[in-house]
Specification:
Ubiquitin-like (UB roll); rod-shaped; 6 helices; about 30% helix; DNA polymerase, domain 1; 5 strands; 2 domains; 5-stranded mixed β-sheet
Length: about 230
């Protein structure tokens, strides 16, 4: 009966390792590191290998010509100022006041507070007053800009607002006067016969450091009578 039953294949092999190499010989055990390897040599080899790996990215890359971003902002702008179109190279972050003063030489536009509070930089864009110190030039490229230099006629005749301000001795130091003139002209263009309260509201965006508000207000009302 012992010849019957499941066959056991291990019975065909002698007990012990199948090959001599499996049996460990205590006298020939290899150390995990060379005998000459010290801690200093090991760290030095690690640093050198890291340098080689880091430099390989530079050594085995090819130089490619740089290309400008297709989404970059166009710097050239056509600006209509005082009825004349100018082609200018303007950075995308430049304000209209800077463009008018330092690129076109229209220094009548003053930069006072430079944060849209005093009104010394007031100009007209399509007939409406704006603070040019807080308006980007690229935002008004399609509008008609009028500065204080464009208020008088071509032959030098003063606008009724300018003449009335002189008659009322409105300008004191004169720093706010260009903004006051532009604001008054814009007001009278939209409302030729304003009330005193409407005129005061129209000039309210301009700060006069000399406190000559009543002079500018009387000049605006006198100019309305002369139009």
């Amino acid at each position: 009966m012992e010849n019957y039953g499941p066959y056991d294949p291990t019975l065909d092999y002698a007990p012990g390792p199948a090959t001599k190499e499996i049996a460990v010989e205590s006298g020939k055990v290899q150390s995990w590191k060379p005998l000459h390897m010290s801690r200093r040599n090991f760290l030095r080899s690690v640093v050198c290998s890291g340098t080689v790996i880091a430099g390989s990215g530079y050594l085995f890359t090819t130089l490619a010509p740089s290309r400008a971003d297709a989404r970059s902002v166009e710097r050239l702008v056509s600006l209509n100022v005082n009825g004349r179109t100018r082609r200018l190279d303007v950075p995308p972050n430049e304000t209209l006041a800077t463009t008018l003063r330092y690129r076109l030489g229209l220094t009548g536009t003053k930069i006072g507070c430079n944060q849209a509070e005093c009104g010394a930089c007031t100009v007209m864009a399509n007939g409406a007053t704006i603070y040019s110190c807080s308006t980007l030039t690229h935002r008004v490229r399609d509008k008609e800009i009028v500065t204080v230099e464009g208020i008088a006629s071509d032959d030098g005749t003063l606008h009724p607002v300018q003449q009335a301000f002189m008659d009322e001795i409105a300008p004191q130091c004169g720093f706010c006067t260009p903004g006051q003139v532009v604001a008054a002209v814009a007001l009278l263009n939209m409302n030729p016969n304003p009330t005193i309260e409407e005129a005061r509201m129209g000039l309210s965006g301009n700060v006069c450091r000399c406190g000559a508000y009543d002079h500018y207000l009387r000049g605006t009302m006198k100019a309305a009578e002369r139009l």
